[in-house]
Amino acid sequence: MKKIAVLVSGGGSNLQSIIDAMESGYLNIQIAVVMSNKDEAYGLTRAKNHGIPAQVVRHGDHESREEFETRLIEVLDGYGVELVVLAGFMRVLTSLFVNHYHQRIINIHPAILPSFPGTHSQKQALDYGVRFSGCTTHFVDEGTDTGPIIIQSIVPVLPDDTEESIGSRILKEEHRIFPESLKLWSEGRLLIEGRKVRILPDKSAEA
Ligand code: GRF
Question: Would you state the torsion angle of the CA atoms of residues 89, 92, 95, 100, taken in this order, to the nearest 10 degrees?
Fold first, then answer.
Protein backbone atom coordinates (compact mmCIF):
# COMPACT_ATOMS: atom_id res chain seq x y z
CA MET A 1 0.00 0.00 0.00
CA LYS A 2 1.31 3.46 -0.88
CA LYS A 3 2.40 5.62 2.03
CA ILE A 4 1.49 9.28 2.21
CA ALA A 5 2.00 12.08 4.72
CA VAL A 6 -0.61 14.74 5.40
CA LEU A 7 0.57 18.19 6.50
CA VAL A 8 -1.87 20.38 8.41
CA SER A 9 -1.81 23.69 10.24
CA GLY A 10 -5.40 23.93 11.45
CA GLY A 11 -8.69 22.11 11.90
CA GLY A 12 -7.91 19.27 9.55
CA SER A 13 -11.39 18.68 8.13
CA ASN A 14 -9.74 17.72 4.83
CA LEU A 15 -7.51 15.28 6.68
CA GLN A 16 -10.69 13.84 8.20
CA SER A 17 -12.25 13.39 4.76
CA ILE A 18 -9.16 11.42 3.69
CA ILE A 19 -9.25 9.26 6.84
CA ASP A 20 -12.98 8.61 6.33
CA ALA A 21 -12.36 7.62 2.71
CA MET A 22 -9.67 5.18 3.84
CA GLU A 23 -11.83 3.70 6.56
CA SER A 24 -14.78 3.23 4.21
CA GLY A 25 -12.53 1.35 1.77
CA TYR A 26 -12.82 4.00 -0.98
CA LEU A 27 -9.17 4.96 -0.66
CA ASN A 28 -6.49 2.30 -0.50
CA ILE A 29 -3.50 4.14 0.97
CA GLN A 30 -1.76 4.46 4.30
CA ILE A 31 -1.20 7.75 6.09
CA ALA A 32 2.27 7.09 7.52
CA VAL A 33 2.32 10.35 9.47
CA VAL A 34 0.40 13.57 10.00
CA MET A 35 2.68 16.53 10.50
CA SER A 36 2.06 20.08 11.60
CA ASN A 37 4.05 23.24 12.11
CA LYS A 38 1.70 24.14 14.99
CA ASP A 39 1.24 22.35 18.32
CA GLU A 40 -2.41 23.38 18.57
CA ALA A 41 -3.50 22.11 15.13
CA TYR A 42 -6.63 20.01 15.72
CA GLY A 43 -5.59 17.81 12.80
CA LEU A 44 -3.02 16.24 15.13
CA THR A 45 -5.80 15.13 17.48
CA ARG A 46 -7.77 13.72 14.56
CA ALA A 47 -4.71 11.67 13.59
CA LYS A 48 -4.23 10.33 17.11
CA ASN A 49 -7.95 9.45 17.32
CA HIS A 50 -7.41 7.14 14.37
CA GLY A 51 -4.11 5.65 15.52
CA ILE A 52 -2.04 7.60 12.98
CA PRO A 53 1.40 8.89 14.07
CA ALA A 54 1.35 12.66 14.50
CA GLN A 55 4.36 14.90 14.78
CA VAL A 56 5.09 18.61 15.11
CA VAL A 57 8.01 20.44 13.53
CA ARG A 58 7.74 24.08 14.60
CA HIS A 59 8.87 26.57 12.04
CA GLY A 60 9.76 28.99 14.86
CA ASP A 61 12.38 26.54 16.15
CA HIS A 62 14.39 26.92 12.96
CA GLU A 63 16.51 29.81 11.77
CA SER A 64 15.49 29.71 8.14
CA ARG A 65 12.84 28.22 5.87
CA GLU A 66 15.49 25.88 4.47
CA GLU A 67 16.45 24.60 7.90
CA PHE A 68 12.77 24.03 8.75
CA GLU A 69 12.19 22.17 5.49
CA THR A 70 15.34 20.07 5.89
CA ARG A 71 13.97 18.84 9.21
CA LEU A 72 10.55 18.17 7.66
CA ILE A 73 12.17 16.15 4.87
CA GLU A 74 14.21 14.18 7.39
CA VAL A 75 11.07 13.14 9.27
CA LEU A 76 8.98 12.45 6.15
CA ASP A 77 11.70 10.38 4.50
CA GLY A 78 12.10 8.51 7.77
CA TYR A 79 8.50 7.36 7.36
CA GLY A 80 9.14 6.39 3.72
CA VAL A 81 6.37 8.58 2.34
CA GLU A 82 5.80 8.59 -1.41
CA LEU A 83 3.42 11.54 -1.55
CA VAL A 84 3.11 14.68 0.57
CA VAL A 85 -0.44 15.97 0.88
CA LEU A 86 -0.94 19.59 1.91
CA ALA A 87 -4.29 19.87 3.66
CA GLY A 88 -4.43 23.41 5.00
CA PHE A 89 -0.69 23.62 5.59
CA MET A 90 -0.09 27.35 5.94
CA ARG A 91 3.62 27.59 5.14
CA VAL A 92 5.02 28.49 1.75
CA LEU A 93 7.46 25.79 0.68
CA THR A 94 10.72 26.71 -1.03
CA SER A 95 12.35 24.99 -3.98
CA LEU A 96 14.37 22.89 -1.52
CA PHE A 97 11.26 21.01 -0.44
CA VAL A 98 9.46 21.13 -3.79
CA ASN A 99 12.46 19.72 -5.67
CA HIS A 100 13.01 16.97 -3.14
CA TYR A 101 9.43 15.76 -3.68
CA HIS A 102 9.30 16.65 -7.38
CA GLN A 103 5.74 15.95 -8.66
CA ARG A 104 5.00 14.19 -5.37
CA ILE A 105 3.18 16.97 -3.51
CA ILE A 106 -0.58 17.58 -3.85
CA ASN A 107 -2.35 20.63 -2.45
CA ILE A 108 -5.98 21.71 -2.16
CA HIS A 109 -6.92 25.32 -2.72
CA PRO A 110 -10.32 26.90 -1.98
CA ALA A 111 -10.77 28.70 -5.32
CA ILE A 112 -10.89 27.95 -9.02
CA LEU A 113 -7.23 28.45 -9.90
CA PRO A 114 -5.61 30.39 -11.42
CA SER A 115 -8.09 32.86 -9.88
CA PHE A 116 -7.52 33.90 -6.28
CA PRO A 117 -4.31 32.13 -5.28
CA GLY A 118 -2.68 32.69 -1.89
CA THR A 119 -4.56 33.33 1.33
CA HIS A 120 -8.17 34.45 1.96
CA SER A 121 -9.30 33.16 -1.45
CA GLN A 122 -12.95 33.06 -0.37
CA LYS A 123 -12.81 36.77 0.53
CA GLN A 124 -10.93 37.56 -2.67
CA ALA A 125 -13.71 35.85 -4.67
CA LEU A 126 -16.50 37.68 -2.81
CA ASP A 127 -14.76 41.06 -3.13
CA TYR A 128 -14.26 40.50 -6.85
CA GLY A 129 -17.95 39.73 -7.32
CA VAL A 130 -17.64 36.41 -9.16
CA ARG A 131 -20.82 34.34 -9.60
CA PHE A 132 -19.05 31.04 -9.08
CA SER A 133 -16.11 29.88 -7.02
CA GLY A 134 -14.97 26.45 -5.87
CA CYS A 135 -11.87 24.44 -5.19
CA THR A 136 -8.89 22.93 -6.95
CA THR A 137 -6.54 20.05 -6.27
CA HIS A 138 -3.14 20.39 -7.92
CA PHE A 139 0.42 19.19 -7.92
CA VAL A 140 2.74 21.65 -6.24
CA ASP A 141 5.49 23.45 -8.13
CA GLU A 142 7.66 26.34 -7.02
CA GLY A 143 4.97 28.99 -7.47
CA THR A 144 2.12 29.82 -5.12
CA ASP A 145 -0.83 27.62 -6.15
CA THR A 146 0.44 27.41 -9.73
CA GLY A 147 1.07 23.68 -10.27
CA PRO A 148 -0.71 21.33 -12.71
CA ILE A 149 -4.42 20.99 -11.92
CA ILE A 150 -5.94 17.61 -11.04
CA ILE A 151 -9.64 18.24 -10.21
CA GLN A 152 -11.78 21.35 -9.83
CA SER A 153 -15.29 21.69 -8.48
CA ILE A 154 -17.53 24.72 -8.82
CA VAL A 155 -20.03 26.18 -6.34
CA PRO A 156 -22.32 29.18 -6.86
CA VAL A 157 -21.78 32.43 -4.98
CA LEU A 158 -25.10 33.52 -3.43
CA PRO A 159 -26.13 37.17 -2.99
CA ASP A 160 -25.82 37.24 0.81
CA ASP A 161 -22.77 35.05 1.07
CA THR A 162 -20.16 35.79 3.72
CA GLU A 163 -16.62 34.49 3.74
CA GLU A 164 -17.85 31.78 6.13
CA SER A 165 -20.94 30.70 4.17
CA ILE A 166 -19.15 30.45 0.82
CA GLY A 167 -16.22 28.86 2.65
CA SER A 168 -18.30 26.05 4.07
CA ARG A 169 -20.00 25.42 0.70
CA ILE A 170 -16.55 25.15 -0.88
CA LEU A 171 -15.25 22.97 1.95
CA LYS A 172 -17.96 20.38 1.26
CA GLU A 173 -16.61 20.04 -2.27
CA GLU A 174 -13.03 19.92 -1.00
CA HIS A 175 -14.00 16.89 1.05
CA ARG A 176 -15.19 15.20 -2.13
CA ILE A 177 -12.42 16.05 -4.61
CA PHE A 178 -9.46 15.56 -2.27
CA PRO A 179 -10.10 11.85 -1.61
CA GLU A 180 -10.99 11.44 -5.30
CA SER A 181 -7.68 13.00 -6.38
CA LEU A 182 -5.72 10.80 -3.99
CA LYS A 183 -7.55 7.72 -5.22
CA LEU A 184 -6.53 8.56 -8.81
CA TRP A 185 -2.94 9.09 -7.68
CA SER A 186 -2.88 5.82 -5.70
CA GLU A 187 -4.10 3.97 -8.78
CA GLY A 188 -1.29 5.50 -10.87
CA ARG A 189 -3.82 7.29 -13.06
CA LEU A 190 -2.42 10.83 -12.93
CA LEU A 191 0.00 11.58 -15.73
CA ILE A 192 1.64 15.02 -15.69
CA GLU A 193 2.27 16.35 -19.19
CA GLY A 194 3.69 19.86 -18.85
CA ARG A 195 0.96 22.02 -17.33
CA LYS A 196 -1.70 19.37 -17.87
CA VAL A 197 -2.63 16.34 -15.87
CA ARG A 198 -4.05 13.51 -17.93
CA ILE A 199 -6.39 11.18 -16.03
CA LEU A 200 -5.79 7.67 -17.31
CA PRO A 201 -8.71 5.26 -17.69
CA ASP A 202 -9.64 2.93 -14.87
CA LYS A 203 -8.15 -0.41 -15.95
CA SER A 204 -10.15 -2.35 -13.38
CA ALA A 205 -13.42 -1.07 -14.92
CA GLU A 206 -12.44 -2.46 -18.35
CA ALA A 207 -11.99 -6.04 -17.16
C1 GRF B 1 -9.15 24.53 3.28
O2 GRF B 1 -10.06 25.47 2.83
C3 GRF B 1 -8.05 24.33 2.26
O4 GRF B 1 -8.49 24.45 0.95
C5 GRF B 1 -7.10 25.46 2.60
O6 GRF B 1 -7.11 25.51 4.00
C7 GRF B 1 -8.35 25.01 4.50
C8 GRF B 1 -8.03 23.93 5.47
O9 GRF B 1 -9.18 23.44 6.11
N10 GRF B 1 -5.81 25.24 2.00
P11 GRF B 1 -9.08 22.14 7.05
O12 GRF B 1 -7.95 22.39 8.03
O13 GRF B 1 -8.82 20.95 6.18
O14 GRF B 1 -10.41 22.07 7.74
Answer: -10
Domains, the chain, ordered by start: 1-102 (3.40.50.170), 108-190 (3.40.50.170)
> What spacing in Å lies between the alpha carbon of 52 and ligand 1's midpoint?
19
Torsion of CA 68, 143, 110, 79, to 10 degrees: -40
Ligand 1 pocket member 88 (CB < 6 A): yes
Q: List Cβ neighbours of 113 (8 Å cut-off, separation of 6 or more).
A: 136, 138, 145, 146, 149, 152
Q: Which residues pair with 198 in a beta bridge?
A: 191
62 carries an active-site annotation: no
Provide the pLDDT confidence category of residue 207 given band limits of 50, 70 and 90.
Answer: low
Share of the chain above pLDDT 90, in %: 97
Q: What is the mean pLDDT of the chain?
A: 97
Distances (CA, A) of 160 to 106, 157, 164, 166: 32, 9, 11, 10
β 132-139/149-156 pair status: antiparallel
